[in-house]
Design a protein that fits this description.
With 86 residues, the chain is of the alpha+beta class. It is built from three helices and five strands; from the N terminus they run ββαβββαα.
Length: 86
């Protein structure tokens, strides 16, 4: 499955993700993107020397063939995934 997912994230004063919502993208990909982005941490944004909350628009690109073209063998970490991931 391939496609882009657009997300909007609110980033707290310490750089943690406070909230993230999907803007566009397929349901299964959106779910994976949301799970990943919730783990991200940013460098804090400072305004006039004080940490501030910010909003970021994020695009996650799911493009399997870009990273694993047919001529390339899958990395060991992917080959070892349990069957439930396939």
């Amino acid at each position: 499955m391939e496609g882009n997912v657009e997300l909007r994230a609110r980033i707290g004063r310490t750089g943690q993700i406070i909230a993230v919502t999907p803007v566009s993208g397929a349901g299964l990909l959106s779910s994976a993107a949301l799970t990943a982005v919730r783990e991200w941490r940013y460098e804090p944004t400072f305004i006039d020397g004080d940490p501030a909350e910010t909003v970021a628009d994020i695009t996650i690109v799911f493009d399997y063939l870009r990273y694993y073209p047919p001529s390339r063998e899958l990395p060991e970490s992917v080959r070892r995934l349990p069957d439930r991931y396939w």
